């Protein structure tokens, strides 16, 4: 049952145009790839990219002068980059971005067969090309996933911590949930976006038509609710699955979103700043050496506090010595006074004794006279 259901989900997921809408030819003069029947443009590169699963996918890279942002576009079902070519050019011009679009394995002029895991390898090859061939930084990339393209978009998004932003256009919760209203995720399901969206750490814009007959609008609403960093969604009233680009609000809202995320600090620089903030405590710990030294300097005030102590002690000793000296002087004076009093006391006693002897002597003479 699981294998049958998985096969049914895969059949829903992949409808490559047959025949492809374009051919790849090599220009004899330059050796460059060209997309037939489209005229060559100086600002468009046509590429063939090897994937880690042994396939070779077709891709186009559209340059916009002085652009700082690059959109990596994963298209929906029943389409290839030939059918998306004109839209890619228009989006690049109106949004003022570089844009890379690619075909999944088995789509357009890409080799191999379409499968969930092949699409993961396909988007990785496109991303690797942006980094290595065009020098695009992760924090300058916006991943754009339309319909089934939301699968490889979210799978890559959860592995890019510095990613600038994500756009989900008519996204699916999972392959199985498009066909059956299941409430849980089964092992045989494909593109389990419902489980991956909470892990995306950058701003996410969800665009969905309210009259979508292929992927119900509830898919987009539920994915938006599960986002970590939500951006104002765009629910296009009356929009179906393949006509959202025709609504004026579509381009206007998308441009507003890109302008917003371009103005916000990049995740790498904010991460660097947060790293700096982490470093600052470490530096401030080094700077805490200054407070520690200032603590040592605070010892000096304590020493200087000791000096007033010594000064006060010295003053105390000085004052006490002065008092002692004064006390000693007064004591000496008292002693002199006492001695003087003693001396006068002795003198007075001596006089009294002399008077007493004289009186006795007079009394003796009076007795002789009487006798």
UniProtKB/TrEMBL annotation:
<feature type="compositionally biased region" description="Basic and acidic residues">
    <location>
        <begin position="273"/>
        <end position="312"/>
    </location>
</feature>
<feature type="region of interest" description="Disordered">
    <location>
        <begin position="332"/>
        <end position="354"/>
    </location>
</feature>
<feature type="domain" description="Serine aminopeptidase S33">
    <location>
        <begin position="69"/>
        <end position="175"/>
    </location>
</feature>
<feature type="region of interest" description="Disordered">
    <location>
        <begin position="265"/>
        <end position="312"/>
    </location>
</feature>
<protein>
    <recommendedName>
        <fullName>Serine aminopeptidase S33 domain-containing protein</fullName>
    </recommendedName>
</protein>
<dbReference type="Pfam" id="PF12146">
    <property type="entry name" value="Hydrolase_4"/>
</dbReference>
<dbReference type="InterPro" id="IPR022742">
    <property type="entry name" value="Hydrolase_4"/>
</dbReference>
<dbReference type="InterPro" id="IPR029058">
    <property type="entry name" value="AB_hydrolase_fold"/>
</dbReference>
């Amino acid at each position: 049952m699981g294998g049958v259901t998985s096969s049914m989900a895969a059949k829903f997921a992949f409808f490559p145009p047959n025949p492809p809408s374009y051919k790849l030819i090599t220009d004899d003069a330059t050796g460059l790839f060209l997309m037939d029947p489209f005229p060559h443009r100086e600002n468009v590169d046509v590429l063939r990219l090897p994937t880690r699963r042994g396939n070779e996918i077709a891709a186009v890279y559209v340059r916009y002068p002085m652009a700082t942002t690059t959109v990596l576009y994963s298209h929906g079902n029943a389409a290839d980059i030939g059918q998306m070519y004109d839209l890619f050019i228009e989006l690049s011009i109106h949004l003022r971005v570089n844009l890379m679009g690619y075909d999944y394995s088995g789509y357009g002029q890409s080799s191999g067969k379409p499968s969930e895991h092949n699409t993961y390898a396909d988007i990785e090859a496109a991303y690797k090309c942006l980094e290595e061939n065009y020098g695009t930084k992760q924090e300058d990339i916006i991943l754009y996933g339309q319909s089934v393209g939301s699968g490889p978009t979210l799978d890559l998004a959860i592995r890019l911590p510095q990613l600038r932003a994500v756009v989900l256009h008519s996204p699916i919760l999972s392959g199985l949930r498009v066909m059956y209203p299941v409430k849980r995720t089964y092992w045989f399901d494909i593109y389990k976006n419902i489980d991956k969206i909470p892990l995306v750490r950058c701003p996410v814009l969800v665009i969905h038509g309210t009259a979508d007959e292929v992927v119900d609008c509830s898919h987009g609403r539920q994915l938006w609710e599960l986002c970590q960093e939500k951006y104002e969604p765009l629910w296009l009233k009356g929009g179906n699955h393949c006509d959202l680009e025709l609504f004026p609000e579509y381009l206007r809202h998308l441009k507003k979103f890109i302008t917003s995320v371009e103005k916000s600090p990049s995740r790498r620089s904010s991460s660097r700043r947060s790293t700096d903030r982490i470093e600052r405590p470490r530096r401030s710990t080094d700077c805490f050496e200054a407070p520690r030294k200032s603590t040592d300097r605070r010892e000096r005030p304590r020493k200087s506090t000791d000096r007033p102590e010594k000064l006060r002690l010295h003053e105390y000793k000085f004052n006490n010595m002065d008092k002692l000296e004064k006390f000693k002087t007064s004591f000496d004076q008292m002693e002199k006074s006492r001695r003087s009093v003693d001396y006068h006391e002795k003198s007075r006693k001596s006089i009294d004794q002399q008077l007493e002897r004289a009186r006795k002597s007079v009394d003796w003479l009076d007795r002789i006279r009487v006798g």
